[in-house]
Amino acid sequence: MELAGVLAEHRHSRHVGGQQVGGELNSLQFTADRPGQTLRQQGFAKSLGHTTTVYGRRRPFPDLQSKIFQVRENARRAALNAPIQGTAADIMKLAMIEVENGMLKDGLKSQLLLQVHDELVIAVAPGELEGVKKVALEKMTEVAKLSVPLDVHIGIGENWELAGH
């Protein structure tokens, strides 16, 4: 059976200072729209001992209380990044579930093979390319309701490299 690979990749775009800025979903910065947001995030993480993603998943950071400067600073940087990276991971987990369920619902034999960062790799069964593209685009675009839109780019190829990675 000959398979073609489909990559669906989440990207975001946002407006900063009247200009559209695009990039990877996991590069969202709290400081882009609200200059004081970073300090508040640091304060919450330090006082609570954890950070939380948009979807409520918590990551503890006990080293924020460390007496060793380097350990405390490493934890501070990780705590700043954790809500962003964690939310991106949560969105991709939801996207995987939605894409898989959508393909099953539509009776497609194609298979979701793996996730690499913000990409899904799908083995597409013969004759199902348009159906898989439709499901992936619809499900990944609508998986999260954020203040920035989720852009989905689809690449097609015999392998991951040829599909536009």
Protein described:
By secondary structure, this protein is α+β, with helices and mostly antiparallel strands. It has helices spanning 37-48, 69-105, 129-142, and strands spanning 4-16, 19-24, 50-52, 58-60, 111-116, 119-124, 150-157. A hairpin with a 5-residue loop joins β3 (50-52) and β4 (58-60). α2 (69-105) packs across α3 (129-142). Strands 1, 2, 5, 6 and 7 form a 5-stranded antiparallel β-sheet that branches. The model is unreliable at 1-36 (pLDDT under 50).
What is the H/E order? EEHEEHEEHE
Instruction: Count the domains.
Output: 1
Strand content: 25-35%
Low-confidence stretches: 1-36
CATH architecture label:
2-Layer Sandwich
Number of strands: 7
Query: Separation of termini?
Result: 23 Å
Tally of DSSP helical segments = 3
Percent helix range: 25-40%
Descriptors:
165 residues; alpha+beta; Alpha-Beta Plaits; two-stranded antiparallel ribbon; 27% strand; elongated; disordered N terminus
Topology of this protein?
Layout: E1 4-16, E2 19-24, H1 37-48, E3 50-52, E4 58-60, H2 69-105, E5 111-116, E6 119-124, H3 129-142, E7 150-157
Antiparallel strand pairs: 1-2, 1-6, 1-7, 3-4, 5-6
Helix pairs in contact: 2-3
Brief synopsis:
This protein is of the alpha+beta class.
